[in-house]
């Protein structure tokens, strides 16, 4: 079983289906990535490099914007993304 779940082709983050350890090499679909830091089960991992202020895609939908550069294999959570869902002051991009 793949340790990472990616639902949509647009997704630049995946859901970890088990605890991923820092330094672990994950072979996933057609590529491999190195896990940069411990990521808890059911939390998000960057599947590609994500630039500052770029959209974070999960399930094919934008769930937030990067508040800093996020490298492939890094933990993606509230410390490096800002939610735009439910905010009247931010317009969702498609």
From TrEMBL:
Its EC number is 4.2.1.7. It is an enzyme of class 4 (lyase). InterPro entries: SAF, SAF_UxaA/GarD, UxaA_altronate/galactarate_dh. The keyword Amino-acid biosynthesis does not apply. Keywords: Lyase. CDD domains: SAF_AH_GD. GO terms for biological process: D-galacturonate catabolic process. SMART domains: SAF. GO terms for molecular function: altronate dehydratase activity. The keyword Nucleotide-binding does not apply. Residues 11-82 form the SAF domain. Gene3D superfamilies: 2.30.130.110. This is Altronate dehydratase. It comes from Anaerotignum neopropionicum. The gene is uxaA_1.
């Amino acid at each position: 079983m793949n340790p990472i779940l990616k639902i949509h082709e647009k997704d630049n983050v995946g859901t970890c289906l088990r605890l991923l350890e820092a330094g672990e090499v994950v072979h996933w679909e057609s590529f491999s990535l190195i896990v940069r830091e411990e990521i808890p089960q059911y939390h998000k991992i960057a599947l590609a490099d994500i630039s500052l202020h770029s959209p974070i895609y999960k399930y094919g939908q934008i769930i937030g914007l990067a508040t800093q550069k996020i490298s492939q294999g890094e933990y993606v959570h509230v410390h490096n993304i800002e939610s735009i869902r439910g905010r009247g002051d931010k317009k969702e991009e498609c």
